[in-house]
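Task 17 of the worksheet. Students: predict the tertiary structure of the chain below and write it out as structure tokens. Keep your answer in the requested format; marks are given for formatting as well as content.
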Amino acid sequence: METRVCRLYGRNDIRIETESVAAPGAGGALVAIAAGGICGSDLHYFQDGGFGPVRVREPIILGHEASGVVVDVGPGVTGLAAGDRVAINPSRPCGRCAYCAEGMPTHCLAMRFSGSAMRLPHEQGLFRDRIVVDAAQCVPVAGDVTMKEAACSEPLAVCLHARNQAGDVAGKRVLVTGAGPIGVLCAAVALEGGAAEVVVTDLQDVPLAAAAGMGATRTVNVARDAAAMEAYAADKGYFDTAFECSAAAPAIRTAIASVRPRGTIVQVGVTGDLPVPINLLVSKEIRYQGTQRFHAEFAQAVVMISSRRIDLTPMISPSVPLEEATAAFAKAGDRTQAVKVHLTFAA
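Model answer:
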């Protein structure tokens, strides 16, 4: 059997190629991919050749946000059958290293994460018509949600993990800086967690409209109205919690200025080195908390999507077929017209 794959060779160099796919072995599942979301890291690979210290050093099949339909399962697989709709968990910790043994699988020393250039050889990704994965990576999707919604399980899991890192947000005033897919989902999970107020900032109106559609109580275009944030910095700050999703130095400064003493900033956005106003972190006794990926939150995200506890439709942009992948990446990189672009694949 053959499958098309979306392979990146270098900056702005995506090629749709064909390779063989085998029948599933013991513990495996053959999945027909239906939808694959283009993530910020995919865009960084495509536009810049990587992000921070992570660089593309060999051809890589992109993609780690995907859903599909099970075509066949290998020997020994139970609880999964042909025809099941599934979201694919791209994360495969080893379960044996020191961090896995300590209950921190997100920090696994031998982590395999689909579509990641972190290691060499790179871990090949999910943007292909057919793929064999471990059956344990397949989480069944229920209800009448679309496959595009199901493919958002991975970014939603990232945001659920970020919320867990923040602590209880019930009744809290929350700031989200950056209204990309992760930002609008952080706003949505904060509201789902009982936040009293969620303010979202960005430089573009289209993602801010998506944030508003997903429940944000206020949106601020800081390119046009930066002064609107000044009131939140008065009297040492207004917000209890901030999710910094842009990884931009001005946004980090805004978050630090706007969070109250002993508040929490969760750094969700990723980049290289940036200047940070340490004096304010110290003087306001702010907890500056990192967050990375997810573990148990993936299955929780699938349940949340299946039950429509969070409405994803405001953030989902029109899809593009795999054969037009280059155009899809260009569209996904234009924040004036799209939030979350999905590739679609052969049935």
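Marker's comment: The domain at 2-152+316-344 is CATH 3.90.180.10 (Quinone Oxidoreductase; Chain A, domain 1). The CA atoms of residues 159 and 186 lie 5 Å apart.
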